[in-house]
Amino acid sequence: MTVSFDVNGRKVTVDPAARTTLADCLRHDVGMTGTHVGCEHGVCGACTVIVNGEAVRSCLMLAVQADGAKITTIEGIGAGEELSPLQLAFKKHHGLQCGFCTPGMLTTLHALLSQEPDADEERIRDVLSGNICRCTGYIPIIEAAMEAREAYRAKAGES
User: Fold this and answer.
1) What per-residue confidence (pLDDT) applies to 159?
2) Which of 31, 89, 111, 157 is most buried, by the most CB atoms less than 10 A from its CB?
3) Domain check: are 89 and 72 in the same one?
4) Could you tell me if 39 and 68 lie in one domain?
5) Helix (H/G/I), strand (E/B), else coil: 144
6) Are 14 and 62 found together in one domain?
7) What is the DSSP string of 70-121?
């Protein structure tokens, strides 16, 4: 089955097997290797991408279900080589160590802050509770998200 969707602003057409997950399709067919596959059960959050504005576990979604969707992966959060305010805040606060969970953390937070730029610390912690990190202890990640809110508020004010 031929499937077409938008990935990071680029139209893509692929021909995945019926049982191919969106994560595998993005990694192997589209070349978006920043989407990591961890548990393959939707528990760890490493494979999180944004589908039509919502954070989605791409290991639980079939590629054929994404037909016509607008998908943002970690590669689409910044502007080319320029890091997004959220990515810059992660860098400043040392919100990543090994980096395996980082793409899922960033896409989860990008989706949250795009919808709720005033999310408080409790809301950020609640949303991130579905993303597992074994290295940072979460505190730098929370600090980075709190700092990045201002950029998302400013962007929301432009809309």
Assistant:
1) 65
2) 89
3) no
4) yes
5) helix
6) yes
7) EEE-GGGTSBTTBPPHHHHHHHHTT--SS-SSHHHHHHHHHHHHHH-TT--H
| Nearest in space to 66 (alpha carbons), one of 100, 102, 31, 24 | 24
Structural domain count, the chain: 2
Which structural domain, as residue segments, surrounds residue 121?
Answer: 85-158
Angle at 11 between CA 7 and CA 14, to 5 degrees: 85
Residue type, 46: A
20 and 56 belong to one structural domain: yes
Indicate which CATH number applies to the domain containing 147. Answer: 1.10.150.120
pTM of the predicted protein model: 0.95
For residue range 29-56, list pLDDT tens digits in order: 999 999 999 999 999 999 999 999 999 9
DSSP state of 64: G
Residues 7 and 70 in one domain: yes
Using CA atoms, how far apart are residues 62 and 18, in angstroms rounded to an integer? Answer: 8
